[in-house]
Backbone:
């Protein structure tokens, strides 16, 4: 008799677990589908387009090839600057749902390297340069000048130092309120074409 009760409890638990897993999968598909639609509709502001052009002009001065504009990485960049301005309210590679810690490598993948794949399906890792602060207006010229003056950020942009072995094939840009970010990737973005917002 006791075995029958245990079996009933196990069956009931398995049905509930199956239902929960089904709901989770549907939720993930809905969220991912919404993100893909948003990625496909993403456009650049005039200031973001200016930042993209300034980055490639600077690279040209260093005899480096231009980096193709990435719709996926630009979507991630915009999402990040909006999250920084509206929720986090400070400069970080972290997100409101992901606490980045430069001293903890376990935070690098979920907060930065893997963010493009999580948000857009972009198949490569993402590497970010961030600029700004809460309470002022970021702009393309100020962001690039700040990164040029920072040895580490400059090395990312012009592929020197530890970044010499990387081949950037995708660049995303985002500017919102007090924050500007650029995202680099080695993988070519299949969703590369992106228009300026009207």
Residues:
């Amino acid at each position: 008799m006791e075995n029958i009760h245990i079996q009933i409890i196990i069956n009931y638990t398995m049905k509930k677990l199956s239902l929960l897993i089904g709901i989770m999968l549907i939720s993930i598909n809905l969220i991912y589908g919404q993100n893909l639609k948003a990625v496909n509709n993403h456009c650049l502001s005039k200031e973001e387009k200016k930042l993209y052009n300034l980055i490639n002009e600077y690279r040209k001065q260093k005899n480096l090839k231009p980096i193709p504009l990435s719709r996926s990485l630009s979507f991630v960049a915009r999402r990040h600057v909006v999250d920084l301005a509206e929720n986090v309210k400070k400069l970080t590679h972290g997100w409101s749902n992901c606490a980045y810690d430069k001293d903890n490598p376990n935070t690098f993948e979920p907060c930065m390297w893997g963010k493009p794949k999580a948000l857009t399906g972009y198949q490569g890792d993402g590497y970010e340069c961030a600029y700004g602060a809460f309470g002022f207006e970021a702009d393309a010229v100020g962001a690039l000048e700040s990164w040029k003056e920072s040895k580490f950020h400059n090395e990312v942009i012009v592929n020197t130092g530890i970044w010499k072995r990387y081949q950037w094939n995708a660049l995303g840009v985002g500017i919102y309120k007090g924050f500007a970010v650029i995202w680099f990737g080695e993988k070519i973005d299949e969703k590369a074409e992106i228009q300026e917002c009207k």
The chain has two domains: 1-41, 44-185. The beta strands are 43-44, 127-132, 170-176, 179-185, 195-196. The longest helix spans residues 2-40.
